[in-house]
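On clarity, I found the account of how folds are encoded harder to follow than it need be. Since the whole study asks how a given chain folds, the encoding of that fold should be made plain. For illustration, here is how one protein appears when written out as sequence plus structure tokens:
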Amino acid sequence: MQPAILHLQNVTKQFSENTSPAVDNVSFILQQGDVLGLLGPSGCGKTTLLRLIAGFERLPTGTIKIGEQIVSNNSIFIPVEQRDIGVVFQDYALFPHLNVEENVTFGLRNISKQQIQKRVAEVLALVRLAGLEKRYPYELSGGQQQRVALARALAPQPQLMLLDEPLSNLDIQVRLQLREEVRDILKAAGTSAIFVTHDQEEALAISDIVGVMRQGHLEQIGTPEEIYTHPASRFVAEFVTQANFLSASRQGNVWETEVGCFELPANYINNLGEIMIRQEDLILTPATDAPVFIRTRRFLGREYQYCLQTPSGKEIHVRTTTDMALPVGTRVQISIVGDAVKVFPQGIKE
């Protein structure tokens, strides 16, 4: 196992006595070379946590260690410039009066001019901007400007990179391309990183480890596969997978819902619950006597997205391949793929 590059223990930050903590008792370890995607809705505390790690905010409770050094606790506070980190912001934060080369050079200190030139050439090649050294930010696209910001942060070879929603200001196509490039760049540089985002797909695609935050708490941390296939709470299941939830009652191994019955292992304590089914795990079969009908169908290129309506008026969303298109109004029988169903206690969203 790689050594830990970042260790947070019981990190808590409260801005006012009259409000809940923005970050509440967060602990985790990030291994050397890993990319952690910090995911959650607006206001969940992920940016505050990033600012505490960077040193932009003081830490009243808990401990933050980068490498072997404690950088924050209730008695120690190492300033930002001494933490050996690189930071990339949402708005690029480039100097408009400096060209690409000068922007990247800005963070390099205490090395010779020849070493600076070599390092600038290395990082510009890494972010695929070689040949654009003399251009100014206004002469670059949004994606190119963000690559310059990334190159500037990487140039001093920090132990840890912190990226605060760096792609959110970009057009969707640029975003999709650049998120792959950012991961490749970080891996090529061998740099550990924390990537803050509210985009579920982005977090799953770019990260080795995903941490899901809610109301200041770290709700779950694990690999993208673990987070997606084994959500630890209803909130994680709903936020990350955008799954469907159906009220259900148990009779032995069978859970009864308004759209049908599903057999599950009898290892649940409660007889009432909510069944979670991901959109892609549902199979639709036309059946004239089925209780569910197709209300809308949307073509999304590689798949169809259906919105079904149940007898109670509840909506169920389904994604299928484009092999067969079912007309709007069709009554359908619902079945599921394998053991894709999970049960959560009824009415509990924590």
Summary: DSSP finds eight helices and 20 strands in the chain. Helices lie at 46-54, 100-105, 113-126, 142-154, 172-189, 200-206, 224-229, 234-241. The chain has a mean pLDDT of 92.
